[in-house]
Structure formats: structure tokens, C-alpha cells
């Protein structure tokens, strides 16, 4: 299974610390060696880095570290291909423009028999189920409105679309338009909201620690989303299966969750991914 | 005025040699210091690098050199802002998806009173005349057809659109869908087609030479397009004012040129750009 990383903040923040742990899973501490991608929003613009080399030793990933890009919304994805070939056109995150803003999307999981009708506004370029799902979501949102609706309408419409799509299989994803960030879990997805008082965090995948109190202001709020927790001394929250969450300014502003919620252990989540041949 | 660079080939080729000369104009041998962008097609996928640092000493440009990406279609742009602020959303090349392929566009010049109606399929994210022109071109092409038309129809439709747009000012641009590359000159644009027998070329902006016969096969054909010639010992061809050309596999396959053709000297071209405050 691939892994997802997302960050949504109320102030431009560099993702280097989280990304350093995350990228190690691409070839060093884990086996996601079939390339990676990371996309940053900078105001309305985006910066996108894709590489077909494992993230652990990719020069593109080295540049991301060296550059310390500050962003309020970041989405990253490392890939373990279980079927289909690695190609740039199939590398997450995917980007399209809608309502005069860029939208960015990354997925892990696997959708079976998911063949939405060809879109009028959005068509896939590659041949993954992930890009098909992304284009289908945008197509349906765009069909319903010529302008970006309010967060509430957006969340409700997306929720209905996601319910339909996840009936085809595993659909863990992160989606952002540079203002808000949506995260949805079918199996494994975790998050943490860091805010004052900030403390020290130590990476699980590398011998690196950071004292956030030294690099933040008391008003900063940063939500980090990851398939599996990235740090060993913080309490990460797990998304329930089929939970959809919307973040804005580093905080959860909408959420929809089955009642009662159901949580998978890491072993159950990974086994489920293997069983369906999740390849996103 | 900004500068454009394009490459269209019949085999994946690295653009490092041309880009090394070109990037020097971003802060060293010329004054285009307000950022740069370069986009590569790799099969159907794209790789895009933007930086707001001068290209001459940008770590992103260093990565482009180190990576030696091989591509059949490349578009690059270095920027000298004369008005408006530098922002990522305004950095060329711009990208959109149309007919299931990515389209990439970079412009230099300046369009006055160019305010096309808001598009149904394509809207600008930033606020440049360049992105407006790109979205307008795609909108009009997409409105006319649900599928990519043949090269001939595409060229004729684009030619009509360009005639309308260039009535608003200076419109030097390069456009590609990864299969063909269009180039249009209002003022200064040059090209060279390199094919067997290959010889040695020396950069104008750097003390670098390359012997293409050592790095090519006899079947290779590479067209390079640049605002001003990049090498000192080769014969570059100049586009006439208002000439539109379509390249495929490193060769010109369509062209439309006023009769008689009119050519500007470098001094005339630069003076004209200054006079209209070209800022693309």
C-alpha cells in the first residue's frame, strides 16, 4: 500500500520535519520504492515535485528538504506499485484547475469496476483508478456549480460523492484547493493538530527531533495527516473507517463519521490493502 | 522582456546544454531575474519546475541540470517583471488538461485590453494577460471539439485565434500538448533544427561546447526555439513577425507567414518590447 501525507496550517509552515520521516518509508524504513510526489500551495500557485526514484534517495526529495518551502497546504504520496507500470502521468498528487483555483489530490487504496462516464470538464491523462476518481469528483462538483460553493455545501456534496466512490473499494485520500483540506479514510489514516503549547517531537523513522516551541509563534496551528503516525512521542488521532474530515487553518471544521465508529489496527489495515491489491 | 525556450524532438533528448546558456540570462549575462519556469513532457506526464529566484543561481535550475531529464517536448521561460508582482500563480509555463492530455504554454510580450469572457472549461488562477490568453485558446479549441482534431484542423483553428489575440499587442508564445509544439512570433523568436550530420556547438552565454555527433544517433532530429540564438557557431533561423509554426518530431510540419515576411533586428525587437512595457 502507498502512504499519504498532508499538512494544513493557519500560517505558512515548512513540512521538512514530517517529510523527512515520511520519505524514509520510500526505500529505507519501508518498501514504498516506486516513486513519490509532493505538491505545495503557495498562495494561489502550486509547486509540484514528482520522481520515479524512491523518495529515500531521490535528488528531488533532497531539493524539497534544502528548499524549506513554506506552505499552508501540502499533499505528498509515496508509491508501492503492485500492478501497472510506474509513469509520470500516474504519479500523485494530481492537479486540475476548478473555479479559478488549483485542486490537488492523492489517493491510496484500490477501486474496482470504477468506470465513471467520460467527463465534460475533466478527463484523466494517465490510467489509474485514482485519477479517474479525482476527475469524477471535480466533474460532479463543477456540474453542480459555476462558482465555488460555501464550505458547508462543498462538504455535503463531497460526502455524497465519496459514499458512492468508496463502494468500489478502498478510498483513502487527501484533497485540497489551497483553502481547505479534505481527508477520507477507508482503512488507515491518522492526524495530529499541533498548537500552543508546542513541545518536542521525535520521528519514528529517523533519529531526528524538533522542538516546535522554538520555530513557531503561539498562534500557529498545524494539522498533519499521515497514513501512519510519524512521531513516537505524540498522540496521533486515527480516522474511523469511512470518516470524512475537512480542515481549515489547521483545525477540523467539518467531519462526518459512521456511528458507531470503527477503527482498524495497523495490521488489519495493511492486510486489507494487500488483499485487494491496493496499488494507488 | 522575458525570454522563451522550447525544444521539440523525435527522440527523448536532454535540454541541459541549451538550458545552461538560457538560464545564464536570468541574472548573469542578462537581467531576467524575476524567476523562471521549465516544463518537461515525459510520455503523457509532465514535470514542472518553477522558481522565484533568478535562474542563474537557482537550486531548482541546478536540479534540472543534475537530473538530465530526457524529453521530447520542453518549454522554459525566464522572467523580467516590469509590472505586477512575482508570484508562483503567475509563473510560466502554465498547464491545463484538454482532451485527456496536458497542454503547456509560455508567453512573452504584452496584451492590452485583452479581457475574454469567462470560460466554461478553463479559467485563469493568476492575473497575467498570458494565462488569460492560454485559457482563452484552450476554451475556444475545447468549445469546437470534444476530441483532439487532426493537426491540420488544430493549426487552422489556432491560427485564427492567434490573429485575434495578437491584435491586442505582443504575443510571442510556445504551446505544446506533448505531441506537437506551436511557436508564434510577434517580435523576436528564433529556431534551429539539428540533425545528421551533427557538429559542435558553442554557447553564446557560457564557455561550454558540445559535440552533438558524440551524443546522438543519425536518426535524431531536435528543434530548439529561443527568443535569441543560444549558440555562436550555428545558423539560427528567425521567425517572421506574425509567423505561426507547428513542429512535430523535430521538424516543421505547418507554417503560416505574412507575405512578404517582415523581420525585426534584435534592437528593434527589444525596443518594441520596452515601448509596450512587455512584462510577461
Automatic annotation (TrEMBL), chains A, B:
It comes from the Bacteria. Gene3D superfamilies: Glutamine Phosphoribosylpyrophosphate, subunit 1, domain 1. One of its GO terms (molecular function) is transaminase activity. The keyword DNA-binding does not apply. Residues 2-280 form the Glutamine amidotransferase type-2 domain. The keyword Transferase applies. Keywords: Aminotransferase, Glutamine amidotransferase, Transferase. This is Glucosamine--fructose-6-phosphate aminotransferase.
